[in-house]
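My current task is to audit a protein record that another person submitted. My question to you is simply how this chain folds and whether the tokens agree. This is what I was given:
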Amino acid sequence: MALPLLTVDAFTAVPFTGNPAAVCLLGGPADPRWMQNVAAEMNLAETAFLHGTDDGFALRWFTPTVEMDLCGHATLASAHALWEEDRLAPATAARFHTKSGLLTARRAAEPGWIELDFPATPAEPAPLPPALIAALGVTPRAVARSRFDYLVEVESAEAVRRLTPDLAALTRVGPRGVIVTSRADTDGHDFVSRFFAPAAGVPEDPVTGSAHCALAPWWAAKLGKTALTGFQASARGGVVRVRVAGDRVVLAGQAVTVLRGELAERT
């Protein structure tokens, strides 16, 4: 049976920018090995698989090489796809049952924006790993570690933009990935970041929602405000609005569908 498959650019309203995710709309649970094979075939940072449940949707995320515990841009893409494909009423919030618990998405008051309710993953100060700093080739202002990633603060937004890390060396550092960040130097943005996860099959992720679950509390504490706007300074670029609410982070972004098709055969 053919299955609907979309490619959605997330955290952007402009096609071919932001972070592309594949979204596969299933009729029911699927074999994880099959899902991993599909994700490898799509060869995007994430492929999302979802199917209906009694009170929402079961959602799983796969990179080309591994299943992930949390992914922001593919969740945003999934919510966008459900509304655009008339799988969910426009005024109804999307409820996703995931490895990171219940996640919700709703249309924001501002047209075109979607809000995601995610768990905060604060980064705590950590020892300076010499291998990490050597791989990044920077002198950090601070190093911390969240549930998933290292967070490295550097001196300037320009230092973030010009970073050319040794990706092979980063695969040996340990956690899922590495967030590099600084205060922004452009109007309308509070901080900038980039995200590298070569050990998970993603050399550089264009826009990383889950990384902002650590970035939001980090910069909220430094800048003294709970609502901020981040810009991920990858080649494609993307904007993530964040709001810290206790142990949760509300991520807001836009999304646009760039491709609709179907998997011709499920094997």
The longest strand covers residues 255-263. The chain has two domains: 3-107+253-263, 124-246. The radius of gyration is 18 Å. Helices lie at 32-42, 72-84, 130-136, 157-161, 167-170, 212-223.
